[in-house]
Amino acid sequence: MPAKNDDGPLGGVPASKSEQTRALILETAMRLFQERGYDKTTMRAIAKEAGVSVGNAYYYFEGKEHLIQGFYDRIAAEHREAVREVLARETDLEARLAGVLTAWLDIATPYHEFAVQFFKNAADPDSPLSPFSTESEHARAEAIDVHKEVLDGARTKVPADLREVLPELMWLSQMGLVLYWIFDRTEGRERSYRLAERGARLTARGVSLARFRVLRPLVHEVHDLFTDFLPGMTRLIPDPAGRGKGTAAG
Question: N or C: which terminus of the chain has fewer CB atoms within 10 Å of its end residue's CB?
């Protein structure tokens, strides 16, 4: 089960001592992961650097995987908070989506080098650290909910059946942006911001065109393609080799 984000309420409300300890352990882990690498960092080392007992570290996080899930959940919560203003202000779909994508880039900026080092772990489809894994379901659902808000508050009319599938496709598009951002070496990740803006424009046009009945089956077909072949999306996928294994749904 993914670790839930309980680092305290956002918006400046003082955190409890327990929340402060949890946040300290998480911040220490992120620093050590970046300095030493995920594989070479132990829970004992994290506890020592954070100034807590090993037992206390395990009390808040069952292991390194749960620390990463805590990080995912924190990013998701901070992102939801950061997009409130643009979603309250804008009704244009392109502006709403561009605001959501650029807000994610802003929040993720301090963690870029960590993301580069960590990518090989998250890219493993069998890893619980994959954004498509069952363990990442909570953070993934939070991110998809943001895209639901993007659609719900836009003045663009979207048929009810497409509202069920578009947020997931929009999140998948965001994952493409994240992948590009990881390898972006331009100053200030300038190309990633440009990609976010152009991607938002293209997505908004695609959503507008998808209103036409003749194109709706294509949208559903694209969604089915991803959910059938990407692990951890929305259904259990039978093992093609017939070994009876499946990939857990997100």
Answer: N
